[in-house]
Amino acid sequence: MPRLAAQLQGLLMQRAEAAKQVEEALDAHPLSQLLMSMPGVGIRTAARLLLDVGDGSAFPTAGHLAAYAGLAPVT
């Protein structure tokens, strides 16, 4: 049991370090403050959005991004 507790403690420390690295990388991104100013968007959501969308250059217009996100579906 003590060995499992030590492993769990190690994993929790790794998780905290990974969260710190994600937060630092997010803070360095120019869009982070804009994303996190939106209601309901925190560090995890902002990081996920930036991972999925990147700089947005793959989308010619905001409408394309909205359709990609499923916010404005078109048949």
From TrEMBL:
Domain Transposase IS116/IS110/IS902 C-terminal: where? 33-74
InterPro entries according to UniProt: Transpos_IS110 (IPR047650), Transposase_20 (IPR003346)
- The lineage's top-level taxon is Bacteria
**Family annotation (Pfam families):** Transposase_20
| Protein name (record) | Transposase IS116/IS110/IS902 C-terminal domain-containing protein
